[in-house]
Write the structure tokens for this entry.
Amino acid sequence: MEPSRARTISTRTANMNNRSEKRQGMYQVVMDQFEHAADIMGLDPGVRKILGKTNSEIVVHFPVKLDDGSIEVFTGYRVQHNNALGPYKGGLRYHQTVDLDSARALAIWMTWKTALAGLPYGGGKGGVEINPKLYSAGELERITRRFTYALGDNIGPDLDIPAPDVNTNPQIMAWIADTYSSTKSPATRFINLHVVTGKPLGAGGLEGRDRATGFGVVATLKAWSKRTGKPLAGMRYIVQGFGNVGYWTSHFLAKEGAVLIAVQDASSTIHNVKGIDPEDLYNHVEANNRSIAGYTKAGTMPPSEFFGLPCDIVVPAALGNQITAANAGSIKAHVLAEGANGPTDTEGEAILRQNGVDIIPDILCNSGGVIGSYYEWLQNKRSEIWKIDEVLEMIHDKIDTAFEKVVSTSEEFKVNWRDAAYIVALRRLEKTYKERGIFP
Ligand code: NAD
């Protein structure tokens, strides 16, 4: 079991320079987590002020002609939190919940994640406020290309490098790379393609980037299992979200001998105590508009009962703020592996800790994705092509190193793994600012 330290919401400090800003949802959660860890480690007050703000927040409104000839104006965001360690890095999300607060929160988590993983990156995030299921492939291509054009030189291979997130995929990354590089001088085309990662293989992608996040989630679960002496083989797991992260996590957990017993996505909640074959479910999802609804080899159940199912491992791999005071008390698992970003809110986390559920925090648990992206970027920069086995080995290695740092820091400060992960990340950022100073 991970060490824990009693944590009360009332003890959080109120000395942040943006305390007066209205914070909601995930933004509130990430700032709660940051302030708590900064208090524990005694983060330098100046660095604390810098990291308490985002560097830039870009909002663009752009018109697109739809298939029926009408014009719609879309809103896109790119928030760049901090680039002390390297270019901004983080996904683009296409979802109706995308707004400034959610982009801020997700950008801030990226800064911690890249710092913890030891990557030469900062944190950014963004997306378009849209339900992509309502648009044709041609419309999505035009929306993506026009969004890229609207972002202009606010992104770039050495400035800010987006990647896939919810409802964005390698095809969308290829359109971004093509649009960005086509709007620059032809002489720079091939040094601009790595403006995004998560591209398809033919467009400069990396073998293994597709599975990197789920592979990393399972690497952290293997490290947890080794540490706690609880074997993964035979464990029952449930997964919320069966997209990129949910599917690949299920795939690699099944390889460890664990049994998938329930899945929830935006369309349905399905359950089979005898086990669900992730590959069979994946084939169904591919053939059914990316939905688990209608899968006949498992029964359906009320969505509100999903997290309370008796099981050993819970993997949230969908949206933020899914585990809250309303359902955290029902979770009986040994461990929560946060495949999603920000799936657990502050109150939900306090309940899980009281109940002795181990939490592998998102900034560690799902960091395989950005580590994979880093290798794609490096492969592009070096004009090399790497093999999948070497890529997965390098990702595993970086995750193991980060996990060990989190465990040793949790022992040093006698804190839980989330606080420890923050402290590792914040120490690295603090050191950089102290050594480099502040311009001018
Ligand atoms: P995706 O679009 O491939 O899949 C998202 C899944 O979530 C879908 O199955 C969808 O049906 C489901 N979902 C959406 N709304 C839901 C709801 N209200 N209830 C239940 N399920 C819902 O997205 P993804 O890339 O797999 O990302 C999932 C999570 O993992 C996000 O939080 C993302 O930020 C995080 N993440 C992704 C990566 C990556 O490399 N793709 C890396 C790190 C973290």
In short: The radius of gyration is 21 Å. Residues 54-187 form a domain with the Rossmann fold fold (CATH 3.40.50.10860). DSSP finds 14 helices and twelve strands in the chain. The mean pLDDT is 94.
